[in-house]
Amino acid sequence: MAPKSSRKDEEIDFVGLLDSIIADDVDRFKIIMSHAVSPDIYFNTNKYNLPKIISGFPTIVSLTTFFSAVKCSYAIAEMKPKFDKQDKYGRSALHFAAAGGNIDLIKLVAPKPEHYSKFDNHGFHSLSYAAMFNRLEALKYIMQFTDQENNKQALYTAVKFGNLEIVEFLIKELHIPTDIPGIMNAACASGNTEIMDLLNASGIPFDENDEKGIPPFVDAIIHDDVKVLMKLEEKGVDILSDNRPFVPIIEAAACNSEIILNFLLKKGADVNSHNTHGATPLFAALSMRNVGIANKLLDNNSDISQIENILTLTAETGDLNLLQRVVSLVGEDCPELHSKKLLISVLNTGNFEILQFLIEKGLEITDQDSIFFNLAEKCIENESPSTLAMIGIEPLKQKGLFRFVLSKLMQKGATKEMISISEQLLVHEDVNVYCGMAKTEMYFRLLEIDSPELFDLFVKNRKEFDIQKLIRLNRNGTWEKLLNAEKGKPLKLLEYFSKNLMDINELNDDGISILHFAISKNCNLETFKELISLGCDVNLLSTAGTSPLLAACYAKLFNIGYILLEKGSDPNIKGKIGELPSEICSENENGLFLLASILYKGGDVGNSLEIAARKGNWVTVVYLIKSGYAQSSKYSKIISKSLKEGKDTHEIIQILAKQKNSLFDSILSMFNVCK
């Protein structure tokens, strides 16, 4: 999709736009473009399966000319786009038109000679785009506006992309000079042996290095092209000798080219060849972590004694089998097996299989604190408790290691491996697990990690961690964390605390239970079900005399009230001023379902009818009258008499409204409107 700045609020159908361009469906193209803010919008080709060369954000006219969509190109030309507008790679519509190869469209976007003087951000002329895409006729047309340097660049491009027809035209018919640095390398990279012969016939040696001194055979090896390498050998290029900057077998090992390596070995290449820098094929393979090539060279008796730090190089490949093979060759008395460099190298790779193997073979963990701490951090990062156990923690007691453990626990959670690592530290009483943190801070971090196993380790192994004191001093904060009030689902620690560390029915300093607290935090239904299943007393009063059911009614959490009622909450426990849960429910029509449930379970209706009338809650008034529950109110005689006389609800409310100091006038008005 195009950048936001190039779009209207109305979304453009870019998929349909691309389809219309490829099919040159000009009618559909015009309809879609009518929604564009301008004809110069960009198109994000990266979201579509298009040639990589047009990736990025080309303009629409660049796309139409690239796909040679003649009708669409002329249609957008009528919209007056900026033909010279460049994309983020510096390409204008001319570059794309040259790649598309349609001369009429090239003329459309570049009608004047001065239009052909532009280069993209990489210095490529539009002529090179024609050469790149093998557009011979387009190339011939554009060449009338170019100079010799442009032509030589186009020749190099055609060679690199293996476009023989254009190469032949430029060399044979126009006699463009071929003295271009690296042109034979480009031919080898293209894999086109005919172009190689053509260049050689024009005077370019098969072994001519590029401007960096790299011989052409290196490009053949990089591209894994045996055919080109055979061609070079056939033409007399030395592919076997060593003691030079670039040795074919060493390059093959570095490039991980097994097919080239096999070819060279059959030709008699020496597996112990070395270049002017002293590198050997095995050194190159190990340095580039090419394990398969390294094994192949060892199969062919590569001399490991020539390589300094052979164990370090091998360990850095990360392949345990290869390392075991090399260790068996050098022997366990190899001095490098005890070197600090090897240890640091293995630590940096973080491969603990290799570390354990080397320790078993005699690798020494030095007594330097930095080494120990680095290793311990790697163990924690990679969750490897067995390696941590192997090195021991004696040097790590006061080094702040547990702070690092804690941060990883916060990030990754309390996995089995992280619990094992924590246990190794927590069982040692003299290990500093607080690392500058107050115990309260540590306590709340542990709550956030939400791991009963980890918490149990602290409780059982850290005598100075007075959990009861921490709970007592931070009861509200503890409850809030355990209930996970902000996120909903209660922590796994809630059950652990209720069974091991706290009385689930103890009141806090504010005189409320955890059930009252959960109501005040508007926790979800699952939390209340969990609390009740853990043994919370649904009838436990706060010091203010409020039951959980009454608290839920006051908080208008009628769904919670229903759960409490179903779990045995007594609906007849009154509040401090004698209020009943039913009366609180009657104040709000949303409480009708809970009110009905309370009355169904034998709850006292109290003054619910009068309260509902006073609050204008006509739905509840009607319910109480029709259900018969209102007969226990102070209007019971009137209601009972009226019901016996067969009067309907409307008539009863009319009678009630006529009573002295009646509260039913507003209810009657509402009922009349609704009726």
UniProtKB/TrEMBL annotation:
<dbReference type="Pfam" id="PF12796">
    <property type="entry name" value="Ank_2"/>
</dbReference>
<dbReference type="InterPro" id="IPR036770">
    <property type="entry name" value="Ankyrin_rpt-contain_sf"/>
</dbReference>
<dbReference type="InterPro" id="IPR002110">
    <property type="entry name" value="Ankyrin_rpt"/>
</dbReference>
<dbReference type="InterPro" id="IPR051165">
    <property type="entry name" value="Multifunctional_ANK_Repeat"/>
</dbReference>
<feature type="repeat" description="ANK">
    <location>
        <begin position="277"/>
        <end position="309"/>
    </location>
</feature>
<feature type="repeat" description="ANK">
    <location>
        <begin position="89"/>
        <end position="121"/>
    </location>
</feature>
<protein>
    <submittedName>
        <fullName>Uncharacterized protein</fullName>
    </submittedName>
</protein>
<keyword id="KW-0040">ANK repeat</keyword>
<keyword id="KW-0677">Repeat</keyword>
